[in-house]
Amino acid sequence: MLNREGDRYLYLQISEVIRSRIIAEHSPGDVIISEAGIQREFNVARTTARRAIRVLRNQGLVHTRQGQGTFVSAPGEIRPAGRTIPLYRHIAGEIRERIKGGELAAGQQIPSEIALVRTYGAARETVRRAISLLREEGWVYSVPYRGSFVCQEERWPAAPDHRVPGKAESTPASKPAGERRFRARRGKPS
Predict the structure, then answer these.
(1) HSE-up of residue 136 (Cα within 13 Å, Cβ side)
(2) Average pLDDT over the chain, rounded to whole?
(3) Distance (Å) of CA 88 to CA 58, 76, 84, 102
(4) In 59-176, where does DSSP find H-type helix?
(5) pLDDT tens-digit readout, 34-66
(6) How many CB atoms lie within 10 A of CB 9?
(7) What is the structure's pLDDT at 57?
């Protein structure tokens, strides 16, 4: 079945076997073999099993739900894992658009980490990274043990301005205080 001495990686061979099973035996929504099942059946390491699943996920054939398993995707079903941008940026972008569109108003709580994990089939750390990005950009603020909330509209980031090539990007007065002090200590003019 697997050519362990060949020039093709084992995880690619395993992904092809599972792909043929999906096409022949499964329909959208069916659970496929787990990582542990791949380890037992093909006698491979967990890393190899994960890589095989990742190949199928990147091809759009399957999607993973944390804590539930890996499922066959419907033909044409769009999954965030098939995107070219990182998933956390995709999640942040969708929340940003909901804020701009008025679906999430100032002071309103954005969906919880758990809700976003379920919606996007993402890891909790990925969701936290998306919220952190929104916080850094000024779209949301977080309250410990309460969640993250939409900032007041006057605190939202301004539309990116178009800089003129050759012009200085900032003046010393507009630089953050920490940056001015750092440069001054190094003996460079701020």
Answers:
(1) 8
(2) 80
(3) 16, 22, 12, 21
(4) 87-100, 113-120, 124-137
(5) 999 999 999 999 999 999 998 898 888 888 887
(6) 13
(7) 85
Number of neighbouring beta carbons within 10 Å of residue 180:
14
State how far the alpha carbon of 146 is from the alpha carbons of 25, 47, 108, in Å.
Answer: 45, 37, 12
Q: What are phi and psi of 71, to 5 degrees?
A: -125, 150
> Pairing state of beta strands 140-143 and 69-72?
unpaired
Are 56 and 15 in contact by the 8 Å Cβ rule? The answer is: yes
Give me the residue label for tokens 């929104």: 134
131 closest CA partner among 120, 1, 11: 120
pLDDT in tens, 94-146: 999 999 999 999 999 999 999 998 888 888 898 999 999 999 999 999 999 99
pLDDT level of residue 160 (50, 70, 90 thresholds): low
Name, in order, each residue with C-beta under 8 angstroms of 11's C-beta and a sequence gap of 6 or more.
44, 48, 49, 51, 52, 55
Length of the chain: 190
Query: What is the three-class DSSP state of 142?
Result: strand
Given a contact cutoff of 8 angstroms between Cβ atoms, the answer to whether 35 and 45 are in contact is no
Half-sphere exposure of 108 (CA within 13 A, CB side): 11
